[in-house]
């Protein structure tokens, strides 16, 4: 479900504050991911107990058709969650589960992985159960993830890849201020098909411009 680089980050962890709306938390993220909150949504570190919900939400055809093949069993998701926790401890990767207000089981996830040893350049991805498409959860969760990536990890370039055929995913990235930089030809294989992907990137200055447009909608 996720790929990772073989290198590690050796710098000591730093405790930093994250603030979104009324929520402020302190994060030594390599020891444990912070709980991120905004109006209507909470992001927290993946829990093994969330495996059944993630299986139900992320393995439907409409959700999985444009993402790397997810695990197909509860045990597979449990192994993925434990892998994610080990990668977080190594400073290479962070994965949050998505909880709408009133829920205690995951309905999706946001993830970010390093593309260089310093985590200065990173790639992120997301997946939400189809019942929550169009609900505003993506925009709210994306704002929290951008704050975490730029302000806590220290990323200066955040990339995303989306199949060209994935109109909803590409539209979501455009909505939050990502800039399309090119087409990666036949770079994604799903069910035996080779597909082109759009390469998107967000820099800190892109984030500032996008907040002027939609940031007031995220509390």
Measured between the Cα atoms of the first and last residue, the distance is 30 Å
Radius of gyration: 16 Å
User: Element order, helices and strands?
Assistant: EEEEHHHEEEHEHEEH
Number of domains: 1
Question: With helices defined by DSSP (H or I, 4 residues minimum), what is the helix count?
Answer: 6
The portion of residues assigned to helices is 25-40%
Helix-strand blueprint:
Elements: E1 16-20, E2 23-27, E3 36-38, E4 41-45, H1 51-58, H2 61-64, H3 74-89, E5 93-100, E6 108-114, E7 121-128, H4 137-153, E8 157-163, H5 167-175, E9 179-190, E10 193-202, H6 204-214
Parallel strand pairs: 7-8
Antiparallel strand pairs: 1-2, 3-4, 4-5, 5-6, 6-7, 8-10, 9-10
Helix pairs in contact: 1-3
Question: Features of this protein?
Answer:
219 residues, alpha+beta, Aminopeptidase, eight-stranded mixed β-sheet, 6 helices, 10 strands, globular
Task: Write a concise synopsis of the structure shown.
Helix content is 30%, strand content 32%. The chain is of the alpha+beta class and 219 residues long. It has one domain: Gcn5-related N-acetyltransferase (GNAT) (Aminopeptidase), CATH 3.40.630.
């Amino acid at each position: 479900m996720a790929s990772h680089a073989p290198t590690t980050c050796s710098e000591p962890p730093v405790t930093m504050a994250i603030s979104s709306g009324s929520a402020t938390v302190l994060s030594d993220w390599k020891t444990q991911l912070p709980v991120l909150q905004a109006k209507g949504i909470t992001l927290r570190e993946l829990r093994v107990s969330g495996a059944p919900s993630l299986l139900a939400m992320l393995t439907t055809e409409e959700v999985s058709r444009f993402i790397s093949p997810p695990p197909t069993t509860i045990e597979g998701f449990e192994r993925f969650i434990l892998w994610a926790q080990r990668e977080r401890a190594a400073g290479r990767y962070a994965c949050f589960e998505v909880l709408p207000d009133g829920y205690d089981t995951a309905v999706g996830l946001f993830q970010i992985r390093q593309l260089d040893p310093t985590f200065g350049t990173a790639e992120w991805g997301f997946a939400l159960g189809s019942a929550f498409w169009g609900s505003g959860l993506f925009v709210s969760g994306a704002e929290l993830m951008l704050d975490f990536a730029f302000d806590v990890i220290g990323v200066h370039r955040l990339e995303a890849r989306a199949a060209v055929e994935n109109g909803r995913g590409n539209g979501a990235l455009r909505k939050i201020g990502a800039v399309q930089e090119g087409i990666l030809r036949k770079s994604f294989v799903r069910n035996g098909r080779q597909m082109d992907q759009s390469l998107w990137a967000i820099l800190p200055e892109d984030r500032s411009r996008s907040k002027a447009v939609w940031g007031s909608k995220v509390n």
